[in-house]
Amino acid sequence: MPMQKQLLLRHGTFFLNQVTRHCSICEACGICYNGFNYTESGRGIDVRCASISEPFVHQSHPHPLFYTTPKGVCSACNKENNYVVKCVEDNCGYILDFKCALLPYEVKHRVDDHFLSLCYGENASGKYQSVGLFLVPEFVNVEEEQELLAVVDTRPWIGLAKWRVQHYGYEFCYGTRNVDTKKKLGELPSFVSTILERISLFPNLGNDPASLSLDQLTVNEYPSGVGLSPHIDTHSAFEDCIFSLSLAGPCIMEFRRYSVSTWKVASTTDAEKSSNSSCIKKALYLPPRSMLLLSGEARYAWNHYIPHHKIDKVKEKVIRRSPRRVSFTLRKVRNHPCRCE
Ligand SMILES: O=C(O)CCC(=O)C(=O)O
Ligand SMILES: [Fe+2]
């Protein structure tokens, strides 16, 4: 690696440095790195972002991309970023932020035996999307995750039998699995404003994103080994789209489709569910900082479940839960009768 470098990002000479901190945030891509960086006036760029040169060729786009006027909304993740490469062809408008531009074309993950390929265009319609299930990795960055955890830790937690919760907007009653629409606690707190803004840019939302107006937030804190029984969020309580942001630790979320009446499953007891062995099960790994969207069939016809395990086994691979997982579940309270009742 050269000791000095001119980068696209701005004029000036960048110098190669060894990073002593365990985790530094790259100014260009917002991702945590360690090892080496290039700095200019004290601002650090990781060596991968420093390697971007023009013309930048990416397999997802037929034209070369250039670093032009900073700032733009990335065509891949829909987030606004200061550091982007753009297509300069007339009327094209294709933009990649540095984070998406540098995603590897192929990765190996411990929960799957096969390589996972980066897909785009028509190839990107994954097997879960057809049932209304979407997972967006790195929906928040490490800094934002730490800030969100710090702020909820300054707020009062409500202790339940095995885990702790906070409710905003409306209180969720665990006895009835419902909310009292006449008892609004207030608006959603400002610490979720950025999350709500990003949700409104969420790709693949069937609904008009502006009409989502999410108004209920449940913050769950699960210690290691604690999960959630299989359930379907009450149809009559919440609208179609349910978002869940995972923070601090990962979990495996299992989805179960029982062969008994799926549209009434909300009232099915756990005993009835476990006595009914005929269900299809699918496991999904939720990494920290990822956002899950349950909608349509995934929200109404499949139970979601977090097994009460300290260790999850996926295809013979062992994944240890962290001491704590915090989730932010965002929903819209239903103010009119549910169509399925
Ligand atoms: O913790 C999660 O991600 C899911 C929470 C959930 O399913 C619920 O509160 O109904
Ligand atoms: Fe749920």
Folded structure, characterized:
With 341 residues, the chain is mainly beta. It has two domains: 4-101, no CATH class; 129-331, Sandwich (Jelly Rolls), CATH 2.60.120. Helix content is 11%, strand content 38%. It has helices at 47-50, 98-101, 142-153, 193-200, 270-275, 296-300; strands at residues 4-6, 13-25, 32-40, 43-46, 65-66, 72-73, 80-81, 84-87, 95-97, 106-108, 115-117, 133-136, 158-159, 164-168, 170-173, 178-184, 216-223, 228-231, 242-247, 251-258, 279-286, 291-294, 303-306, 311-314, 317-320, 324-331. The protein has a seven-stranded antiparallel sheet with strand order 12-22-19-26-17-14-13. The protein starts with a strand and ends in a 10-residue tail after the last strand. Residues 261-269 have low confidence and may be disordered. One of its GO terms (molecular function) is oxidoreductase activity.
The outline comes out as globular
CATH architecture of the largest domain: Sandwich
The low-confidence parts are: 261-269
**Percentage of residues in helical conformation:** 10-25%
**How many separate domains?**
2
State which percent range the strand residues make up: 35-45%
Count of helical regions: 6
What fold name goes in the CATH topology slot of the largest domain? Jelly Rolls
Number of E-type strands: 26
Distance from N terminus to C terminus (CA atoms, Å) equals 64 Å
Small molecules in complex:
2-oxoglutaric acid, fe (ii) ion
CATH homologous superfamily designation of the largest domain: Alpha-ketoglutarate-dependent dioxygenase AlkB-like
C-alpha Rg, in Å?
22 Å
The structural class is: mainly beta
